């Protein structure tokens, strides 16, 4: 098959084969391109979609971009089960194998340094949500009801609602702070991302904590058990707070932008990471 080379990740050589039915972007199965003791994971993509001009247009098409991101993430997920991949940013494309090799040579030192740092480690994402029905702190003031007997009654009503809203958010933020402190103590590193907007993430509720944790693969079971115990506690009465665990991911949040060219999880999970 001819076409451009789409690069998913760089990793060290590994002996375990990828899934036989694994399809990459545009349906082409990924293959391994070894060079200088490293391996680029690549597949062929058509110039009609991935040459500079059509790609620029496609990047404005959310449906097209979502399909590419899912295929990209599928390859990264498969790699994460057999090795420690260093994901490249979405739609990293080169003219041919020679272009991929040149890229490896140009970034070789950074690739090796980052792979050494992340070897045997995975990323876990943890989010804390308040229920969807909870007013945000920026909610508009309540409309003055006809039943309010006077301006004084209206002001009391507004004050009570404001206090209830603030108390709810303070409890949630206190819980999130304690949870993050606990999880960070059981991880090698952590990142706090900006809370995600429900309109963008599609998740129900208000996002109070959006964090990522770098955990040795061997310690992942213990880390998951800690989160599960916390989820059990919230179900037993923590004001409707919901804890969401995702992963294990490739360590997107712990790759510095200069090391790989802004490596980020395509669905944003690693961003302030969807």
Automatic annotation (TrEMBL):
Pfam families (UniProt xref): GvpL_GvpF (PF06386)
InterPro entries: GvpL/GvpF (IPR009430)
Listed Basic and acidic residues bias regions: 261-274
Major place of residence: other
Record keywords: Gas vesicle
Region of interest called Disordered, as start-end residue ranges on this chain: 134-171, 254-274
Compartments it resides in: Gas vesicle
UniProt similarity note: Belongs to the gas vesicle GvpF/GvpL family.
Protein name, UniProt field: GvpL/GvpF family gas vesicle protein
């Amino acid at each position: 098959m001819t076409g451009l080379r789409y690069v998913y990740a760089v990793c060290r050589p590994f002996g375990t084969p990828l899934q036989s039915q694994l399809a990459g972007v545009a349906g082409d199965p990924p293959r391994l391109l070894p060079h200088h003791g490293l391996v680029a994971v690549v597949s062929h993509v058509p110039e009609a979609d991935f040459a500079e001009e059509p790609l620029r247009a496609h990047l404005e098409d959310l449906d097209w971009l979502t399909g590419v991101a899912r295929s990209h993430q599928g390859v990264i997920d498969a790699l994460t089960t057999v090795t420690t991949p260093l994901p490249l940013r979405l739609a990293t494309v080169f003219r041919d194998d020679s272009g991929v090799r040149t890229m490896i040579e140009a970034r070789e030192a950074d690739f090796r340094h980052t792979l050494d740092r992340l070897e045997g480690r995975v990323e876990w994402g943890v989010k804390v949500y308040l229920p969807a029905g909870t007013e945000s702190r920026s909610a508009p003031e309540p409309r003055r009801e006809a039943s309010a007997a006077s301006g004084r009654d209206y002001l009391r009503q507004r004050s009570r609602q404001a206090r209830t809203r603030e108390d709810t958010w303070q409890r949630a933020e206190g819980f999130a702070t304690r949870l993050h402190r606990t999880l960070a103590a059981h991880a090698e590193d952590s990142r706090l991302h900006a809370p995600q907007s429900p309109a963008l993430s599609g998740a129900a509720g208000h996002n109070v904590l959006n964090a990522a944790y770098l955990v040795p693969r061997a310690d992942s079971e213990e880390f998951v058990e800690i989160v599960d115990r916390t989820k059990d506690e919230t179900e037993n009465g923590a004001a409707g707070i919901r804890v969401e665990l995702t992963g294990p991911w490739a360590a997107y949040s712990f790759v510095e932008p200069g090391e790989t060219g802004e490596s980020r999880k395509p669905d944003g999970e690693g961003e302030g990471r969807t």
